[in-house]
Amino acid sequence: MERLMVQGGTRLEGRVAAGGSKNAVLPCMAAALLTDEPVVLHRVPDLRDVRTMAQILERLGVRCERDGSTLTLQCTDPSRSEAPYDLVSTMRASICVLGPLVAARGEARVSMPGGCVFGVRPVDQHLKGLNLLGAELRVDGGYLVSQVRRPLKGADMFLGTRFGSSVLATTNVVMGAVLARGLTCIENAAMEPEVSEACRLLNSMGAHISGVGGHKLLVEGVPRLHGAEHVMSGDRIEAATFLVGGAMTRGDVTVTGVDPTQLTVVLETLSEMGAAVDRGQDWLRVRADGPLRPVDITTMAYPGFPTDLQAQFMTALCVADGISVVTERIFPDRFMHVAELLRLGADIRKEGPQAIVKGVPRLSGAIVMASDLRASAALVLAGLLAEGETEIRRVYHIDRGYERIDERLAALGGRVRREAQPKVESTPLDW
Ligand code: EPU
User: Fold this and answer.
1) Least enclosed by CB within 10 Å: which of 141, 243, 329, 368?
2) 429: burial class by Cβ within 10 Å (0-12, 13-18, 19+)?
3) Per residue in 57-72, pLDDT tens?
4) CB 378 within 8 A of CB 314
């Protein structure tokens, strides 16, 4: 077990390159199940989630080879169709092998992902869409099981959750539909850039998907797909994490290799908070030289404010000059970071899916526990702000989605180091 030790009180300053998008690369890797030709992905970040997906794909007969940041995936054994609990339970995104498996192999046995720290996280929309394509799925022994006659059949559908649309359900169903006979029309498709990126890769593999980037996707099934080569786009969430870190430490941070048009609402929020934002075609710079102003934030589906940045922005608001209200509309229970921020001296009151954040003049370092990926990033940023030392435990969460975060923050001037968590000496009780 490792921990991060963060010494607060430094400004972040300098340039950092965004890595390839985690949430785009995972479904793009799963797309390799749809062809027996190589799928070559460039600019693939070295993250725990990418390794987990590679392990799952290896179990499903896909050879995954990494050379630097290039990952070559090739399906060599289409007879295997089980994604086991031990791997799926560590990463919900593994559910996106379901669509390609039923489409390409006519059978799937994929562990139900189970809950996570942000609540129940149902998969009903994944099942609804794939069922409409003719892949009847049942739950058997904790696994989603399907055995169908291929090809699946195109269908019209509305994919809706209580909170709007679903990112991975949209991608999963699209991957189910690309090899189906006839036309599939998905209304209320998620518009997140990661969905569009998976569609672009599929189109370069020979799929016919139109309406990419919009709420209505049309998929005209084709009999087979071929291999392709694709360069992943920059991770918008990682980029914005560095930018908000720059703003809250009154620093000056430039992130390169990111598309500013994917972060419009986030950049507006940073400007409203008083940071100066400059942008080029593929870079962003944020500077701040005084206390940030409070803002109200409501998370929404793209192009709204991303839930994946809620925790990091809440940290910045903890030391803003006034009161902010943060409303979580995508995952109403995604507030695990609040209790840890309170340990650092923040003033936050949680009421249902809202947190009322009253800015305080300073935070003070303490031991905190990372609970999920974005909450851990928020705690590292909080450590940079806090006076004294902050110890962040369970940092394996952060390695799921941020590559070498400690080294990259250190290169920006943050005093962050990684070390082994010492074993706790316990005195046996003679009860
Ligand atoms: N939902 C349902 N039924 C479903 C699917 C989703 O009710 O069948 C609900 C969810 O419970 C949630 C809402 O719909 O309330 C939206 O969830 P969505 O399905 O869009 O989330 P996801 O696809 O499972 C992806 C990202 C998450 C990100 C969300 C929302 C990946 C690998 N994960 O998850 O990323 O928070 O979209 O944008 O793409 C992260 O990177 O830290 C992360 C959690």
Assistant:
1) 141
2) exposed
3) 999 999 999 999 999 9
4) yes
Here the tokens at position 238 are 């990682």
DSSP state of 205: T
Summarised one tens digit per residue, pLDDT across range 137-176 is 999 999 999 999 889 999 999 998 877 899 999 999 999 9
For the question of residue 64 being annotated catalytic, the response is no
User: pTM here?
Assistant: 0.97
How many angstroms is it from 171 CA to the middle of ligand 1?
11
**What value does the CA radius of gyration of the chain take, rounded to a whole number of Å?**
22
Number of helical (H) and strand (E) elements in the chain, helices listed first: 14, 24
Residue ranges lining ligand 1, Cβ < 6 Å = 23, 26, 92-93, 121-126, 161-163, 166-169, 190, 194, 307-308, 330-331, 373-374, 401
Which DSSP string do the residues of 410-427 spell out, in sequence order? HHTT-EEEEEEPPPPP-P
